[in-house]
Automatic annotation (TrEMBL):
<keyword id="KW-0378">Hydrolase</keyword>
<dbReference type="InterPro" id="IPR036663">
    <property type="entry name" value="Fumarylacetoacetase_C_sf"/>
</dbReference>
<dbReference type="GO" id="GO:0016787">
    <property type="term" value="F:hydrolase activity"/>
</dbReference>
<dbReference type="Pfam" id="PF01557">
    <property type="entry name" value="FAA_hydrolase"/>
</dbReference>
<dbReference type="InterPro" id="IPR011234">
    <property type="entry name" value="Fumarylacetoacetase-like_C"/>
</dbReference>
<comment type="similarity">
    <text>Belongs to the FAH family.</text>
</comment>
<dbReference type="InterPro" id="IPR051121">
    <property type="entry name" value="FAH"/>
</dbReference>
<feature type="domain" description="Fumarylacetoacetase-like C-terminal">
    <location>
        <begin position="74"/>
        <end position="279"/>
    </location>
</feature>
<protein>
    <submittedName>
        <fullName>Fumarylacetoacetate hydrolase family protein</fullName>
    </submittedName>
</protein>
<keyword id="KW-0479">Metal-binding</keyword>
Length: 284
């Protein structure tokens, strides 16, 4: 299945994609949140869709899409998980996954604007594959890690590099600004992705290809990442793990290049759809 959420921001309704069209499933009576995933919601949703075949209301194609997961308890990100990205950032390959968190208030829809924070001059782009957890995970062994996965999403790990690297402390202040976690358009369940270790992911800025890679280039694969993260914190159903970005970010260019108002960012991953985000300055 491919799950979507649509409508006004903070008031999104659940939907699903069937074929090429989007359909409303508000009659299912649940949002795609922690309770949904923890209580077998994917199976119940599948049964609901089957029992309402031919009766679901089509969603207008121009409808705004929200992130396909209702507010997760956390967004865990993996830094420097592609060797070419570590090289362009001029750092050594990590011996263990680098972990940081993005604020859940950074979540936005796949086609919502990227808002450059007040005073920012180094806002950057990073296309990433995100994993959505389907079950509570604590001290998970690597061999069983995929049993805890609900599905996958496209994610732009928008980053403010001055805040991240030049302001002291850790990376969090450069990662959690409003609009810095556009997610979606869809959450594709595991059965929709035949080989998660061989997905093409790409990102363009103003039509120019900046990132073009594949998840085959992961340093740390998804089962290891899930197991590793679960040693330090409990992952709850609906939590998001973003698995890192390949080379081609603005910070790694010569000279470094960053987003400015009026820019347009487009990105996509095989079978997870395409997102398009316009960049604008913060306004009170």
């Amino acid at each position: 299945m491919k799950l979507i959420r649509y409508g006004t921001q903070y008031q999104e309704k659940p939907g699903i994609i069937l074929g090429e069209d989007m359909y409303d499933v508000a009659g299912f009576g649940e949002d795609y949140n922690e309770h949904f995933f923890e209580t077998g919601g994917l199976v119940r949703l599948q049964d609901f869709v089957a029992s309402h075949q031919g009766k679901l209301e089509k969603i207008p194609a121009e409808s705004r899409l929200g992130g396909p997961v209702a507010r997760p308890s956390k967004i865990v990100c993996i830094g420097l998980n592609y060797a070419d990205h570590a090289e362009e950032m001029k750092v050594e390959l990590p011996g263990e996954p680098i972990l940081f968190l993005k604020s859940t208030t950074a979540l936005s829809g796949p086609n919502d604007d990227i808002i450059i924070p007040r005073g920012s001059v180094k806002t950057d782009w990073e296309v990433e594959l995100a994993v959505v957890m389907g079950a509570r995970a604590t001290y998970v062994v690597e061999a069983e890690a995929m049993d805890y996965v609900a599905g996958y999403c496209l994610h732009n790990d928008v980053s403010e590099r001055e805040y991240q690297f030049e302001r002291g402390g850790n990376w969090t202040k450069g990662k959690g600004c409003d609009s810095f976690a556009p997610l979606g358009p869809v959450l594709a369940t595991k059965d929709e992705i035949s080989d998660v270790d061989n997905l093409r992911l790409w990102l363009k800025v103003n039509g120019e290809m900046m990132q073009n890679s594949t998840t085959a280039n992961f340093i740390f694969k998804i089962p290891f990442i899930i197991s590793y993260v679960s040693q330090f914190m409990t992952l709850l159903p609906g939590d998001v793990i973003s698995t890192g970005s390949p080379a081609g970010v603005g910070y790694g260019l010569h000279p470094p290049t960053f987003l400015k108002p009026g820019d347009v960012v487009e990105l996509g991953i095989d079978n997870l759809g395409v997102a398009k985000q316009h960049v604008r300055a913060y306004t009170p």
